[in-house]
Amino acid sequence: MPVLLFLIDTSASMNQRSHLGTSYLDIAKGAVETFLKLRSRDPASRGDRYMLVSFEEAPAGIKAGWKDSHATFMTELRNLQAVGLTSIGQSLRTAFDLLNLNRLVSGIDNYGQGRNPFFLEPAIIVAITDGSKLTSSCGVQDELHLPLTTPLPGSELTKEPFRWDQRLFSLILRIPGHTSSDPEPMGGVPLDPSPITPMCEVTGGRSYSVFSQRMLNQCLESLVQKIQSGVVIHFEKTGPDPPPTEDGPIEMKHGPQSWHSCHKMIYVRPNPKTGVPVGHWPIPESFWPDQNSPTLPPRAAHPQVKFSCVDSEPMVVDKVPFDKYELEPSPLTQYILERKSPHTCWQVFVCNSAKYGELGQPFGYLKASTALNCVNLFVMPYNYSVVLPLLDDLITVHKFKPPAKWRQSFENYLKTVPPYYITALRKALRMMGAPNLLADNIEYGLGYSVVSYLKKLSQQAKIEADRVCALVGKKAALEGGIKLRCRSSALSLAHRKDFTQLLHSIMGDGPALPMEANTKEFAGFQLAALNKALKPQGLRNPYDIPRSHLLDQLSRMRRNLLHASICILKGQDQDQLHSVPIAQMGNYQDYLKHCPSPLREADPDQPKRLHTFGNPFKLDKKAMMVDEADEFVTGTQSKGKRPGESSSPAGVGAPKRRRCMSPLLRLGRAYTPPKTPPRSTCFFVIAHNTIHQIFLLPQCPFFLCLNAGYEKIFYLLKQIQGSLETRLIFLQSIIKEAASRC
After folding, report:
1. Which of 131, 456, 521, 713 could pair with 172 as two cysteines, CB 3.0-4.6 Å apart?
2. How many Å apart are CA 669 and CA 649, to the nearest integer?
3. What's residue 128's pLDDT?
4. InterPro entries from the xrefs (predicted)?
5. Interior CA angle at 68 toward 64 and 70, to 5°?
């Protein structure tokens, strides 16, 4: 289930407009919607999870998190506004912490017990910004700095804020404000020189410098193709370069080359049956675990894997499981494929993984495919060159009945293996058919203090995850105002020697004097912040009245004054009280949530009446009583019963008493259904600026009038004779008379 997190720049510089006539923020919103449309073409997109983070401070910057729906994501995306600073460092830290909320709870990182590539939660962060200067409350920054402190528990176990299955891609909008006459450069999209580019490359992603709408669409299509399940590994060469082969490249280059160190991803394909990646062997840690150590050393986000260029023979034993991962195309894969040696491999190591020796023992190898179209990483048991021949002898020679010499060799091998490999080795032996080779008393877990420490971190992470998820979507409390800070060391204006002359110049009684601005005159002064949540009060606050609505507001105030009864003025007009934005007119569910709970029914035995939207006489059919005659006709017909069989088991009780048949249903008398009464007629009568909804029932001795304006119900107990038109005219006159008396 890939996680797609969009980091949108909401700084004030995103309000600048391009030559297309739209602002950068609108272009960013359109890019996200286009990305979702392109992604929806892939059937695998059904399991995608979308998140949205802006450049605001956390938690207000988290617009859509783990528990928010796709509709919430789209709503928050449309409501983004470009007001603020370009605090991309803090926003990136917020995005990484949001992705890492549940990792300690689920145990996906498997700290201290090896790195399992098949335990992953692939995530892609797409940052869309204009590449302007990085600004914060501390000033302008030239380099990107991520905060070192974070409230997320367990962040000290990893050196970097990201993980090996999280990559960052950035779209830097460079679309000019005027149409350029120069032709667009064809080919690939270049990298951007902004400060976020090094961060993208460290995580395994890249940046795109976008100069036109065509390049933006090209970048979005490229990003959709990069949504792959995999982890990033740092491959680095150890030892001398390989000798040239007969079919490989002849020229030899000296010095560091691009394929010596690569920061690329390995693809972790999911199981086609279950849709979940399956694996057997971990990548070893870069330290030997100590049972007596109270803590774990912090690990790097990406494992440092060394590869030796010495040609080795690839080893695979039947019935012994292994893991196979394809490498992302890189200079390393290109160099291996150019050698055209599909029958040789290069062993891979992790430094300090063994108890003795800096390089450690091999845990797998790199090998080109037989068709020479890709390079695969084979992950085997630790020090596979020793254990695979032993397991081969166990299967082919000893037939799973090992002698004492073989057991001694196997025990010597176990002493050189990190303890966390015992669990994977036991599962592999069980799959092979030899489950009793490993004793149960072998210590393969972590120390007690480390286990307790990890459990404590998991509990704290669970509390933090619940807290952050609860804060998502809630607006931060508004501050009292914007405080003015004093940055001048000059004296106040009142301490100036020419204060009297300056005061006269301000009042216009004397010649004008130059006056220097001094912020100390406004010590403790605050600028009020605009609260958009408050509705404008046109009758209370004149500053809430727009300039274009002054005349209309004046007529409303005059009407409010003249129509006031007993000198009671209303604080708000009726039309403003019921004015609702078009986007919120159909939001009836939120209105119901804020309504007070209804009172209990006076007579609970009566059928429960539904809401009065539509037909007010609509009842709940499930709660209505069933007619006994209908129950007799339809309920006593037993289906699938043979003649002579009873519907109840014998000896249970007396047969059910049959009810006397209605005279209308007896044989010999024809049943004529009753005539369907005419439907009720609904009229709307306007009297005294009030809409009255009238239901005219022809066979009812009274009329029902609903006053929709004040929600009052009048029962007019009037027996009226005559035609339908006469009754309607008489009823309208009664309504007018009642409205005039109100």
Report:
1. 131
2. 36
3. 93
4. Beta-barrel_INTS6 (IPR057413), INT_SG_DDX_CT_C (IPR029307), Integrator_subunit6 (IPR051113), VWF_A (IPR002035), vWFA_dom_sf (IPR036465)
5. 85
Output phi, psi for 111, to 5 deg: -60, 135
Give the residue carrying structure tokens 């569910």.
589
Q: Which of 724, 651, 732 is nearest to 688 (CA)?
A: 732
What's the token pair of residue 303? 């494992």
- Is the Cβ–Cβ distance between 681 and 695 less than 8 Å? yes
**CB-CB contact of 632 with 659 (8 Å):** yes
Cα–Cα distance measured from residue 9 to residue 4, given in angstroms and rounded to the nearest whole number: 16
* Cα–Cα nearest to 134, from 6, 13, 29: 13
| In the block, residue with structure tokens 């005539």 | 675
Phi-psi region of 139 (alpha: psi -120 to 50; beta: other; left: phi over 0): left
Q: Three-class SS string for 676-689?
A: CCCCCEEEEEEECC
Q: What is the rounded distance in angstroms from the CA atom of residue 482 to the CA atom of residue 99?
A: 33
pTM to 2 decimal places: 0.66
Provide the 8-state DSSP code for 372.
S
DSSP string, 26-93: HHHHHHHHHHHHHHTTSGGGGG-EEEEE-SSPTTTTEEE-TT--HHHHHHHHHT----S---HHHHHH
Tell me if 420 sits within 8 A of 349, measured CB to CB: no
DSSP bridge partners of 7: 53, 127
**Residue 321: which of 417, 366, 388 has the closest Cα?**
388
Structure tokens at 591: 């209105």
Reading the block at residue 130, the tokens are: 């204009």
Q: Under a CB-based contact definition with an 8 Å cutoff, are residues 285 and 351 in contact?
A: no
Q: Burial letters for 103-133: b for 16+ Cβ neighbours within 10 Å, e otherwise?
A: bbbeeebebbbbbbbbbbbbbbbbbbbbbbe
| Alpha-carbon Rg for the chain in angstroms | 39
Are the beta carbons of 378 and 324 closer than 8 angstroms? Answer: yes
- Edge to edge, what strands does the sheet with 49-53 contain? 62-64, 49-53, 3-8, 123-129, 166-173, 207-210
Asked if 618 and 610 count as a contact pair (C-beta separation under 8 A), the reply is yes
pLDDT (0 to 100) of residue 68? 86
542 secondary structure, DSSP code:
G
Name the residue type at position 714. F
Give the C-alpha separation, 308 to 329, whole Å.
19
The DSSP output letter for 264 is: E
Question: What is the β-pairing status of strands 703-707 and 712-716?
Answer: antiparallel
Sort residue 187 into left (φ over 0), alpha (ψ -120 to 50) or beta.
left
Nearest to 431 by CA among 325, 326, 317: 317
Neighbours of 412 (CB within 10 A): 11
What letter represents residue 134's amino acid? Answer: L
Q: pLDDT tens digits for 39-56?
A: 988 888 888 889 999 988
**Alpha carbons within 13 A on the beta-carbon side of 242:** 25
What whole-number distance in Å separates Cα of residue 727 and Cα of residue 681?
Answer: 12
Find, among 35, 90, 33, 102, the residue nearest to 61 by Cα. Answer: 90
One-letter amino acid of 263? H
Looking at per-residue pLDDT, the higher value among 257 and 683 belongs to 257
Sign of CA dihedral 433, 437, 440, 442: negative
69: left (phi over 0), alpha (psi -120 to 50) or beta: beta
Mind listing the pLDDT tens digit for each residue in 592-609? 667 777 777 777 776 665
Q: Identify residue 386 by its one-letter amino acid code.
A: V
Strand stretches in 543-688, DSSP E: 681-687
The one-letter amino acid code at 175 reads I
**Strongest mean pLDDT among 429-433, 443-447, 659-663, 708-712:** 429-433
Output the DSSP codes for 91-123. Answer: HHHHHHHHHTTTHHHHT-S-TTS-B-TTS---E
Q: Which structure tokens are listed for 541?
A: 């606050």
Sign of CA dihedral 584, 588, 593, 596: positive
Q: What share of the chain is helix, strand, coil (3-state, %, to 5)?
A: 30, 15, 55
Partners of 3 in the β-ladder? 49, 123
